[in-house]
Amino acid sequence: MSGDRLPDASQVLASLARTLHVPVLAIIDSDDPALLGLLDADVLVTLAPAKDPSRVQVTVAERDFGAIGSAYLRPDLLHARFLDAKAAPLDPTHSPAGPALSPATSGAAAVELAEAALPYTSGQRQGIPAALTHELAAWRTAVASGDQEALKGILPSLLQAAAAVSRMPDTAEGHRLAAALRAYSTPLSADAAASAGQAAAAGAAMHAPADRGQVEDGGAGDEEDGHDDLAPQDEEDGQDDLAPEDEEGGQGDLVPGDERDEPEGHVFPALRILKDAVDRSKMHPVPVIRTEERDSGPWPLISEDMDGEPRWVHPDVTLTRVPHIKANGKRVRRDQLDVPDTLGEGVMCLIDRNGSYPSACSAVPLAPNKLLHTGPLEAFDKTKAGIYLIDVPEWTRTDMPHPLGRIIERPDGRGRVWVTTPHIKQLEKLVREGHLDAAPVVHDSWTGKANESLFKPFYEATRKARTELVQVGGDPYKAYKTRLSIALRLLWPKRQEQKSPFWRPDWRMSMVAEASVRHWSVAFRAVQEGHTLLALRNVDAAVFWTPPGTPPATYRIGTGFGEVKAKFVQRGEIIPEGDD
Questions:
Q1: Within a domain: residue 115?
Q2: Is the pTM of this model over 0.70?
Q3: Of 186, 201, 216, which one is at a domain's C-terminal end?
Q4: Which secondary structure element, helix H or strand E, spans residue 56, and what is its range?
Q5: How many domains does the chain have?
Q6: Do 36 and 114 have their domain in common?
Q7: Model confidence over 127-141: pLDDT tens digits?
Q8: In terms of residue numbers, what domain contains 126?
Q9: CA-to-CA distance for 526 and 496, rounded, in angstroms?
Q10: By CB atoms within 10 Å of each CB, which of 13, 56, 78, 216 scores lowest?
Q11: Dihedrals phi, psi of 214, to nearest 5 degrees
């Protein structure tokens, strides 16, 4: 594939894959990250030359997760193929200084550790801290290339990361990894034990096996669900939301002091990380719009309704709010869905997406600098980002909510609405795939040069911290989620007295819109594959009607970003939240 129409062709192939239920592989001779980003591929496999001409390095990346693994292959160009490449042998006579690479264990033990690490470095298995996963990935790369010096440099930090884990996952893979590490380590010294004790006090040690990649419901696991209990006043407010917004960056009230950086040693200094990500950008972002400019230009046009969150229930399904008494005696209200017999036998499958907001930070299109008035546009310019005034496109399907969600509830007198870039890109994609008749006409716009990586360092740090802390649970995990939520809400503080390091409502609403678009898109793929969607709410909650124990295949079960938790509820029962 090549040429200017490459991104459009990529989307046609993606539609073909979903229609025919087959994988489609497009081969592109390019290493331009801007071009590859425009393709919006589900999976990206990159082949790159290695120092050894008899080998190439292959890296696998997913759209929502980033790079998930790397390995080496042996090119067989005569037959236009790549073959498995065995790890380069280590020199057993060379023993670098340090506690591990002895002549007796350097070759076989190094390869065994690399192979034992594969399930965790590839993302196939979870249950070890991100710091250890990172070191093991570096170890695998060094073993594959036969780089003794790299192994020597990696070893101390690898052993330090391993020493911080009090218990490996109680699985065959976990046992193999623990045995492979024992070949390089000795029993913990007193200093190491003290260090591990301090880590445990800080909430960094893991006290239970984590082989399933799941968090139990109830207790500390309550926070994992991302749902708050309804406040007393909510019992009579008449709302019918299936669940509150995702706590990991969702809505909430900021209080004085939230805008200050976290103290040294905080389990997750989210605000400092977010500020650093913006400061490091070479586009010289403008994080704060001056107070005197906020009442003019594009800023009064931006509202919370631009998030596009769906608040939808299938037209054949009735939702009611019913009283419920929790195990602790607290009285709350819960949703109950009346599923008609016409949908056949089945159960309600509750989907709860993990970290919808921080996951959206991985590639949300933003204008780092000020928005300029660019007026009516003949076509959407992919190099720009901002806000756009468009007609509400007609959506006739009854099995899915409108792709603009609640944005369509408040059009102006001419039936037009303001949207951010993620929704414009979504509509363009739906047109390419034949689900909408025509691209929306842009009647007015405020835009700037687009950038999709402004928040990526924040996303990567958030994902790493979550991988570690979700295993710990309790107060450290709650502190992580609290500071994450505060940092993202500080992008648009509502009160003048809130002295935030940010005031960019377009950034905030684009991030939420990106989360909504991803949530809607995965649900739509499930519906296209024949699943029945009963309800879609917020940026993380969906309910399907499925056979028992069978979530839609478009969702990946797990605790990582982009993955989901799935629960099953019988017809007529309430939709549980938290520790129900």
A1: yes
A2: no
A3: 201
A4: strand 56-62
A5: 2
A6: no
A7: 788 778 878 887 887
A8: 106-201
A9: 43
A10: 78
A11: -125, 160
